[in-house]
Each structure stands twice: as C-alpha cells, then as structure tokens.
C-alpha cells in the first residue's frame, strides 16, 4: 500500500517543471538543518531557492531523481 508521501510524489511528478520547482522551493523552506553550521538566514534561503528555481525554469538539468534519491532518503528517514 502506497504511503501518502508516495501518492503525493506521484501527483507532483505529473506537474509542469515550473510547478514542481515551486513545490520544491516551498518544501525546502520548511526544513530546518540538523547542524548549526548548516543553518542559513531566511534571506540566504530565499536566495538559494530563487537560484535553484531560476536554474530549473531555464532548463538546467540539475541532478536526476535517480541520482539524488539515495542521498536524500537517509535525511528523510530521520
């Protein structure tokens, strides 16, 4: 049985790239870093999110989900 996260991810992957970028930006903005050295100010996060969103909307291939998923899963499981 698929989890809520799996169902939501499936729906999100059907969205246009700009809509997916917006969702990514919103979700990233809600995460707190584990280490104080990883903490960024709100302004720094806004700059980073905007940079990534601009790159995605400009067609930058970035990192594929297949390559990124193994690195992200441990962080999500915490």
Outline of this structure?
With 78 residues, the chain is mainly α. The protein has four helices and no strands. Helix 2 packs antiparallel against helix 3.
Present the secondary structure layout.
Blueprint: H1 4-12, H2 17-29, H3 42-57, H4 65-76
Could you please describe the fold and organization of this structure?
This protein has a domain at 10-30 and 39-61. It has four helices and no strands. The protein has helices spanning 4-12, 17-29, 42-57, 65-76. Helix 2 packs antiparallel against helix 3 (42-57). The model has no long low-confidence stretch (mean pLDDT 82). It is mostly helical. It starts with a helix and ends with a helix. Helix content is 64%, strand content 0%.
Helix content: 55-70%
Radius of gyration: 14 Å
Total strands: 0
From the helix content, strand content and strand pairing, which structural class follows? Answer: mainly alpha
Q: What are the secondary-structure elements, in order, as H or E? A: HHHH
**Main pleated sheet:** none
How many helical elements? 4
Intertermini distance: 22 Å
Q: What is the general shape?
A: globular
Mean pLDDT: 82
Q: Which regions are unreliable across 5 or more consecutive residues at pLDDT < 50? A: none
Strand content: under 5%
Any key phrases for this structure?
64% helix, 78 residues, mainly alpha, globular
